[in-house]
Design a protein that fits this description.
By secondary structure, the protein is an alpha+beta fold. It has helices spanning 25-35, 43-50, 56-80, 87-108, 115-126, 129-150, 156-225, 230-259, 263-276, 294-315, 353-364, and strands at 280-282, 319-329, 332-341, 368-373, 378-385. It starts with 24 loop residues before the first helix and ends in an 11-residue tail after the last strand.
Amino acid sequence: MTDDQLPPDARPEHAIRVGRPPRDRAEATRKLVWILPWLIFLGSPVRDLDSGAHSTPATVAGWLALAAFTGVYLTLVFRNMGRPFSGPAVGALVGLLGTLAVVLCVTLGGAWIGLFVYVSVTCGATLPQRAAYWAVGANTLAMLLVGLYVGSDDWSLVLVVLLLGFAMMGVKQLVRTTVELRRARATVAQLAANEERLRLARDLHDLLGHSLSLITLKSELAGRMLPDHPDKAARQVADIEQVSRQALVDVRAAVSGYRRTRLSAELAGAQVALNAADVIAELPAEPDLDGLAEEGESALAWALREAVTNVVRHSGASHCTIEVLRRQTLDGPVWELSVEDNGSGGSGAGPGNGLTGLTERLDKAGGTLEAGRTRHGFRLVARVPAATSAPVGSGA
């Protein structure tokens, strides 16, 4: 599935990249929206300045200091999302925030005690883990002392300051883990691609190396025999034809193995397709497919692909359940794939080309297909016989 087939809100260009700098102005705006709601704690200082309780010079100085405090806070937190400042710069700016909070609370009153919330959030979000523990604790202690000095009665903020600081430390650790997981996934994907290329190279060498060497040797031998011994040269040419035909058979068999549809890959693709279509999906985590023959697995994989395509395109469903089970029936053990949705869309007056083709494919694998509407939606069940390790005697 390409990015163009995803819903608009699920496309990479519309996602907020955690722990990465914004790529454009729109993404910067979206990240800023996540920061601005925290400014609610500035309501009390703004009301205090607007009340007229202070002299004009004090009010002007208060507005300037509040603007500087807010600017430093937003700069620190916003830059920390992508390209953070250096360690000394972060320490200096956090110290400036703490100093402003103490000075403004002491000089302008207890209404400014909420500034310590932003100092605590900044400490937890920007400082190293060990330093953040001490900084959040020191900030909480400073808030207690300043609150006692100015006679503040809003002690509920003590828990807010302490818990928000430690919560931001957890969020920062989560972001770091997410970034590391993203890098690890990219590395694993690259290693898997390299391993697949190496496997393909080994298989081609094993398949064609000996055959091509033999063809080259016999061609040279036939060329030397041709003038004097045409009958022997003809036998060499016949051997060359036989070797080349066998090499062609081996290559076709290998290519068929590479192209074989696998049920595990189709389950992963079904998860992506259903999530992109806003369909709640319930899928087996990692089904144990021991005893499932290649032909049967390919048939079930095609059945799953057709069923998921119908759910996404035609059903209008909001929920889909996929099950892969091994069952014991009167005819012997079978592997059963079940795809059930709660959609209102039907399959039409009769079976479509997709279901007809699936029936034929399952028939070749010795399996069966059942598809039809249920009380809550539509259900498709595909079954193929399971491989048995030893023949079982016929019982009554």
